[in-house]
Write a structure and sequence with these properties.
Elements: H1 2-33, E1 41-45, H2 57-65, E2 70-77, E3 83-85, H3 106-109, H4 129-136, E4 141-145, H5 151-160, E5 167-173, H6 177-183, E6 191-197, H7 203-209, E7 216-221, H8 228-235, E8 243-245, H9 249-252, H10 257-261, H11 270-274, E9 280-283, H12 286-295
Length: about 300
Amino acid sequence: MKSYFKLLCLGLLLITTAPAFAQGLANKLSAVFGKKYKGILVAAHRGDWRNAPENSIQALENCIDRGFDMMEMDVQMTRDSQLVVMHDKTIDRTTNGKGLVSAFTLEELRKFRLKNGLGRLTPHQIPTMEELMLAAKSRILINVDKGNEHLELVFKVLRETSTLDQAIVNVGDNIPYQALMAKQVIPVDAYIMAVVNMKHKECLQIIESYQSNPRSMLQPIFDTDTLASLKSLGKSAGRHLLWLNSLWPSLNGGHDDDRAVEQKQTRESWGWLINYKPVILQTDRPAELLTYLKAKGLHR
C-alpha cells in the first residue's frame, strides 16, 4: 500500500510539474529574444555525440540528464516526405547502411542502426523529427538545422507537437529578411535564426535586415578574426542577438573548442567569443563549456 501511495504521489507530481516546466522553457526563450536573459545558453551540437550516436534520442536524453540548455539537431527528407533526424544527405557515415536519405522510405530507414562517435554500431534507430520533438517536449530547448528546403513541414511538425515555443529554426544562409519572407511562410510566433558569412559583401546589411523581427537571431560565421565586418559587428555587440559556434576553427576564426579543452586556452577561445556577447554558444564540448560559464557567472 505504501509503495502504491508513493507511486501515486510521484505521478501527481509529474502531472503538476510538467506544464510548469514547459512554461519555463517558453519563458526562457521569450526572455532571450526579449533581451532580458542574463547569461549564455549552451547548445550541444548534434546532441551529446561523444557519448551517444549523434542526432539520436539517446543523445537528447544525455543532454537533458547533463543539464545542457539546448540540443542542436539536423533534419533530412525521406522518399515518402518524412522528416528524419540526420545531418548528412546520406546514411553512410552514421549508420550501417548506405545511400541517400531521400532514396529510402521511413519504413526502409527503420531497419538501419546508428553508429556512435567511435563508429561502432548501436541498437539505436534513426528518429523522425516528430519523435525527437515529442521526446524533447517540455524538457529541453531545440535548434532545428538543415531544414531550409522544408521549412513549411518543419514548422508543421513543431506546431503539431506543440513545441514551437521551445525551438529555434535555422532559415537559411546569407539571405536578407525581406527575401526570406518573400518566398517562405514563417509563423509569426516562430523563433528563427539566419546564418551570415562575415565575408559576404552585404553581411552587415543582412544582419540589420533582421532587426524588424524581434523573434530573430543571427549566426555569424568567420574563418579569421581580423575581418573589418566582424569588428563592425563587435562595436554593436549586445544590440543584435547572436548565436556563436565554438565547434571548429573555420566557424570562429580559430577560437574553437579544441583550443579551449585540449590546448587549455579558454581565454583565447571561449573567452574571446564571449566578448561579442552571444546569448547562445554551440559547442562540441558542452560539459566543459557549461562548467566554464558557471565559473564565470555566465550560466544560471
